[in-house]
């Protein structure tokens, strides 16, 4: 059961990580047009490390032998909360390019 569930949670964590790194990359690209706010950069890097740490820590769950629906909901909702947290760290429309 863990193998299948790990793939699902890994996809959600991967999407969160992709969103965060894409936001940091856009900020680096547009550093001349945007004001860089240091607490936001630190917060975003903190969320990146949090996602990586939880993703790595997920390997511990492979030893869980009794997979109940409650555990499934808890871990799946935790992954969803981390993804939504990453969306709040870097909002989707943060760095729009100006078209002339």
Write the layout of secondary structure elements.
Blueprint lengths: L1 H28 L8 H20 L11 H21 L11
What's this entry about, in short?
The chain is mainly α and 100 residues long. It contains 3 helices and no strands.
Written overview of the protein:
It is a single chain. The protein is an all-alpha fold and 100 residues long. It has one domain. The protein is 69% helix and 0% strand. The chain has helices spanning 2-29, 38-57, 69-89. Helix 1 (2-29) runs antiparallel to helix 2 (38-57). The chain starts with a helix and ends in an 11-residue tail after the last helix.
Q: What is the string of SSEs from the N terminus onward?
A: HHH
Principal-axes shape call: elongated
Helical stretch tally: 3
Classification by helices and strands: mainly alpha
For the report, how would you describe the main beta sheet?
none
Radius of gyration over all CA atoms, rounded: 16 Å
Total beta-strand segments: 0
Q: What portion of residues belong to β-strands? A: under 5%
* Average of per-residue pLDDT values: 83
Distance between the termini: 53 Å
| Number of individual domains | 1
Unreliable segments of 5+ consecutive residues = none
What percentage of residues falls in helices of 4 or more residues?
55-70%
